[in-house]
Design a protein that fits this description.
The chain is an alpha+beta fold. The chain contains 17 helices and 39 strands. 45% of the residues are buried.
Length: 675
């Protein structure tokens, strides 16, 4: 076993590798960028080396600096994690040339599986089933269009060197192909430095099921069963589980053996994942009719590897270290078995209600359920951040991975919902509540899975309000009263409990909730009881308000409802978490906002920090509502800025290639009413 390794990554995966290394008595070296100088992964490793600027190309992608850091600190091997250099053939070769062990497959395997077109040809020779498509080297757009027309729509354009959902476009009809191809190629060249693509038949009602494989230097290779990763947004995984619901023993064996055949075809060593698209021609109720086709092989550890660890009881990072140090696989195929069911939810800094736009900001509140970390347990949270840390625009938006394990899928689902309900994050937008809604859909609960689950269930997944104005206002009022009581002095004149000897004492509150203005009246009744009325007219909700402070929030009763609420105040905004879901409400201080003008119309601002890729208009152009105006790139993804209304472009304020901050005005638009 190695004595010291360098971890060529950051965040959660760097902390994950460090945890296993520490358990095995292996020293660790972290590398970090300017933005990560105080990051968690730097703190948990034994040593740390600064390697450059905040942007990945200035630090985590500078493999020569990483190798220098390994040599300077006496590390014997480099663990690349996932992303960044984990599937970089040149980096793996450079490690070997420097006398360092690359904890991953040989460079030849990375090369063979790194390009989708070539890997498909290799798999065809190995007898692994393939989706009908074009995987050739001729990238003439006219040829690609003809091939797409020949295959039949819908088709999927995929960057040959791609991964993580980047450089991928679904096309429903021939006339949309050219524009989708251009966008796909642009994103591919920006993300991977290679704009080659392949075109495949888009399988209807598809499931995404992958097989975890492991090989050693002695020629042994096993599969550690499957993971279902069908629940995706923008071609990126949201929920993963193991084993795959409805998987038959016969199909599991067929897919496992095909995955091993794929690994053997490239003389694979270490942890890898063979991904299959699984067609359900007989519908959800007939798993025996499922057919599988090879998609790609990820020559690294996967983000979702903890669900495999949960059902097998194994530590896959430990297996990686042992295999890389020359040891044989710890177990044979017949010694591997499945226990229970596991589900992983990726908690990301993003706004699901705004097309999953990435979010940046500080983790002002980062509350997690009772859990273990980086080890097997009923509830596990793997995270590379701490409360107070910032989520920057330079890296991936994932905050943490929440993994639950149960004896059955139903038990795992119950644990997932409870754990998500206890995850309280304030300071930036996250997908936590969205994950709860996905897991609660009838489709997911009943394992009616395919990659279109999220768009199909959008009516119950987006723009939902689980708490409602009455309870939100009651929680905000209760929190205000508790805060005021905490400020009371010992003399009776400092009391703020509405004490009076005669008459009625009433207090007015004003809120913004769900984009609308709302009022509430709190009445202090004789004897100390409280009465709250929220709203006006027929929509008003009124009743006694009773609340009791608890260690983890407030026990609240109002209008026939009883719940527990945790309330976190951030300026004027109260973030409210309840068992049924979370919301936020803004308390309006009328004096503080007196004289403020209405927001200026016709302004288009950057929704996040990033780079301006292109403008689709010029000054003087007339535009219609919804028309694309500009493209921005942030967190490795492209985002289209559309016109909010009909109007005329007055001025472009930036040029393609410019970096902009969140809220920066990109262009001036005179809306139609003002033309």
């Amino acid at each position: 076993m190695f004595k010291k390794i360098l971890i060529a990554n950051r965040g959660e995966i760097a902390c994950r590798v460090a945890a296993t290394a520490r358990r095995l008595g292996v020293k660790t070296v972290a590398v970090y960028s300017d933005a990560d100088a105080n990051a968690k992964h730097v703190a948990v490793c034994d040593e740390a080396v600064h390697i450059g600027g905040s942007a990945p190309k200035e630090s985590y992608l500078r493999w020569e600096r990483i190798i220098e850091a390994a040599q300077a600190t006496g590390a014997q091997a480099i663990h690349p994690g996932y992303g960044f250099l984990s599937e970089n053939e040149d980096f793996a070769k450079a490690c070997a040339q420097a006398g360092l062990v690359f904890i991953g497959p040989p460079p030849s395997a990375i090369k063979d599986m790194g390009l989708k077109a070539e890997s498909k040809q290799l798999m065809e020779k190995a007898g692994v089933p393939l989706v009908p498509g074009y995987h050739g080297s001729d990238q003439d757009p006219a040829l690609l269009q003809r091939e797409a027309d020949r295959i039949g729509y819908p088709v999927l354009i995929k960057a040959s060197a791609g991964g993580g959902g980047k450089g991928m476009r679904a096309v429903d009809k021939s006339e949309d192909f050219a524009a989708a191809l251009e966008s796909c190629k642009r994103e591919a060249i920006n993300s991977f430095g290679d704009d080659a693509v392949l075109v495949e038949k888009y399988v209807l009602r598809p499931r995404h099921i992958e097989i975890q494989v492991f090989g050693d230097t002695q020629g042994n290779c096993v599969y550690l069963f499957e993971r279902d990763c069908s629940v995706q947004r923008r071609h990126q995984k949201v929920l993963e589980e193991a084993p795959a619901p409805g998987m038959t023993p016969a199909l599991r064996q067929q897919m496992g053996e095909a995955a091993v055949a794929a690994a053997r075809a490239v003389k694979y060593v270490g942890a890898g994942t063979v991904e299959f698209i699984v067609e359900q021609p007989g519908g959800y109720a007939k798993p025996e009719d499922m057919k599988f086709y090879f998609m790609e092989m990820n020559t690294r550890l996967q983000v979702e590897h903890p669900v495999t660890e949960a059902i097998t009881g194994l530590d896959l990072v430990e297996w990686q270290l042992r295999v890389a140090s020359g040891e044989p696989l710890p177990l044979r195929q017949d010694e591997l078995s499945i226990t229970g069911h596991a589900i992983e939810a990726r908690i990301c800094a993003e706004n699901p209600d705004n097309n999953f736009l990435p979010a940046t900001g500080a983790l002002n509140v980062y509350g997690l359920p009772e859990c273990v970390t980086f080890e097997r347990g009923a509830v596990r949270v793997d995270s590379g951040v701490r409360q107070g840390d910032a989520i920057s625009p330079f890296y991936d938006s994932m905050v943490a991975k929440l993994i639950v394990h149960g004896d059955t899928r139903a038990q795992a689902l119950a644990r997932l919902d409870e754990a998500l309900a206890q995850t309280h994050i304030v300071g930036l937008a996250t997908n936590v509540q969205f994950l709860r809604r996905v897991a609660r859909t009838d489709a997911f609960t009943n394992a009616q899975l395919d990659t279109a689950l999220i768009p199909r269930e959008q009516a119950v997944l987006f723009h939902q309000e689980p708490v409602g104005l009455p309870l939100a206002a009651a929680a905000a009022v209760a929190k205000t009263l508790l805060r005021e009581r905490a400020d009371e002095g010992v003399d009776p004149f400092s009391r703020r409990d509405g004490f009076h000897t005669h008459g009625v004492v009433q207090r007015r509150f004003e809120f913004e909730f769900g984009g609308a203005h709302a009022k509430a009246w709190l009445t202090y009744e004789r004897g100390g009881s409280l009465h709250l009325a929220v709203g006006e007219g027929d929509a008003a909700v009124a009743g006694p308000l009773v609340f009791t402070p608890q260690a983890d929030g407030i026990e609240l009763q109002f209008a026939g409802q009883r719940t527990r609420a945790a309330v976190y105040a951030q300026g004027e905004v109260d973030h409210i978490f309840t068992p049924r879901g979370a919301t936020q409400i803004t308390a309006i201080d009328l004096l503080a906002h007196a004289g403020e003008a209405a927001a200026e119309g016709g302004r288009l601002t950057a929704p996040m920090p990033g780079k301006v890729v292109s403008f689709a208009v010029k000054a003087g152009d007339a535009v219609t509502k919804g028309q694309p105006l500009a493209v921005m790139e942030a967190m490795k993804m492209e985002h289209t800025i559309a016109a909010p209304a009909d109007g005329v472009v007055q001025e472009l304020l930036y040029a393609p290639g410019d970096q902009v901050t969140e809220g920066a005005e990109l262009l001036k638009l005179v809306v139609a009413e003002k033309v």
